[in-house]
Design brief:
Helix content is 50%, strand content 10%. The chain is α/β, with parallel strands linked by helices. It has two domains: 176 residues, no CATH class; 110 residues.
């Protein structure tokens, strides 16, 4: 598929639809101005401020919430040094390009809801890396100029610093952030943990999934993909109102999402002597209850 700008400009509303969906200009700006009592100009300026500080000070939001900005402490410091040193060479077109690149991204983030939303910084990551590299390079040149006899050691130190920053970011993401994040929300976590529980069950094992109206067994594609051998039935209304077949195999599972206490009580009364177990979300709330019925 190729991108044809002329064709896109024939349908400007469709071309700008992704931006219009999250733009602050319109209902969001009017509502926020009314509820907070702030002027629209101050709200816009604050949004731009958030979009800019999301690079190095304000923790990001939305799809990626690590509790830190896009750049953590040390990369953020080097980034700011690079910005400051680039001002010493205002006619350098390479520096101008980075300023325009980063400024445009900060405006795009600021002019959208939920600033600073992490997913809207993706386009800026190469510019951030280049500015950090520029800052390290300029620092090394200044040190070499002052200490020419140490030029080799300074170069090694700068390279080592860049490698250590990269390694520390990888450590943070994979060893701190990832283990405490589910990446998919409540329903995604239900699907993953239930799939882990069911994937070793024999083919044809019946399962009754009671998650209406928020979720069905196949709402998240990973669940039927990881446990394709399960013969599942989705409830779309109260169990008491449903005309469902009676389990006849040696084993059957009933899965209940929260807020289905009446269904749980009814099933336990109809099919006694089963075993209950549950899985928990990261905040210790229940993801689902599993009722395992042995019909042997």
């Amino acid at each position: 598929m190729t991108f044809n700008l002329a064709e896109q400009l024939q349908f400007p509303n469709e071309f700008l639809a992704p931006m219009n969906r999250v733009s602050i200009f319109g209902d969001w700006l009017n509502y926020t101005a009314q509820t907070t009592g702030s002027s629209k100009l101050l709200l816009i300026l604050n949004q731009v401020k958030l979009g800019t500080l999301g690079f190095f000070e304000v923790p990001t939001r939305a799809w990626y919430e690590p509790g830190v900005p896009i750049l953590r402490a040390m990369p953020g410091v080097i980034f700011l040094i690079g910005l400051a040193l680039s001002l010493l060479h205002p006619r350098d077109e390479r520096g101008q390009l980075l300023w325009v690149w980063l400024g445009a991204n900060a405006l795009a983030v600021g002019f959208s809801e939920s600033a600073p939303a992490a997913q809207r910084y993706v386009a800026a990551t190469p510019a951030l890396a280049l500015m950090i590299g520029y800052g390290l390079y300029q620092l090394s040149q200044m040190l070499i100029k002052c200490l020419p006899k140490w030029s080799c050691a300074i170069s090694i130190a700068v390279i080592s610093a860049s490698l250590l920053m990269a390694a520390d970011d990888a450590r943070f993401y994979y060893l701190e952030y990832t283990p405490t994040s589910d990446f998919s929300g409540f329903n995604g976590e239900v699907a993953q943990k239930l799939a882990n529980r069911l994937k070793k069950e024999p083919a044809g094992t019946p399962l009754y999934f009671i998650g209406y109206p928020g979720m069905g067994f196949d709402s998240i594609g990973s669940l039927p993909f990881l446990a394709p051998q399960i013969s599942y039935t989705d409830l779309v209304e109260d169990w008491m109102k449903s005309d469902l077949p009676v389990p006849t195999s040696d084993k059957a599972f009933f899965v209940f999402l929260p807020n289905h206490d009446a269904d749980r009580a009814f099933v336990e009364k109809e099919y006694p002597d089963g075993n209950w177990s549950e899985e928990y979300y990261k905040d210790e709330t229940v993801l689902y209850w599993l009722y395992e019925l042995d019909l042997k």
